[in-house]
Amino acid sequence: MLRVGVHVSIAGSIDKAVERAVEKGCDTFQIFSRNPRGWRYKALTDTEIREFIKKVELSGIAPAVVHMPYLPNLAAPDDKVYNRSVASLTEELRRCDSLQIPYLVTHLGSHRGYGKAKGFERIVNAINTAFSEVDNGVMLLLENTAGTKNSMGGTFEDIQHIIERIEHRERIGICFDTCHAFAAGYELRTEKSLKDVIKHFDAVIGLEHLKLIHLNDSKGGLNSRLDRHEHIGLGYIGEDGFRTILSEEHIKKLPMILETPVDARRGDIENIAKVRELVGNG
To answer: Does domain 4-280 fall into CATH 1.10.630.10?
Structure first.
């Protein structure tokens, strides 16, 4: 069965996110566990935790996924930002565990011009530090990036370089973003090219590590290095491209989260419907 959902708001209280996911017809959903645009956060109350877990169970939606906030940068050269980022990662692993959420998605950050070698060192140290401080069953999903200037994790090789240096590799998985991959130069639109990408992923990282799909169209062309999401089928990947992606055996069985725009053209419900329509016509 296709499991498709969107990122939903936690405004009001975190358990309200489950109601929003149900209203939008989600089979899976993603949240921020707190305000994504600030460093400060409030501890989750026992009531919030209990209500969230209960509502998820009643909804039958699975899995719920948490995305790291916007400010943390695991590759940051600045010590103050870096230390706060590591503390954020550690705290999010704890919050996911308390909410019984299996996956925490993280971007790999930007080296800010200090070079990939320094960026790799920072990311590896950040994850190893967080894992040593928090020992639980939450899996950290590393998200591929669009290959924008100074960003880390734009190639499968770069991601594998990080994974190899993690002490508890069993706690690491991959979130594959279609927009980011396409913008970084991975051709996903034809059956042959997609098979080649999947084969390459398997050879470098291993398909067993692929746990979640961020299903987004791209406002930029192939290898544009532009990280701008578009409605499903309305960007450069296009409807035919998504028919191909959604019929791929390794992808279609994974939970898929849409991070598509909400504007006058379409909202979340319409994008979910478009994905289901393309699967039906696949």
So the answer is: no
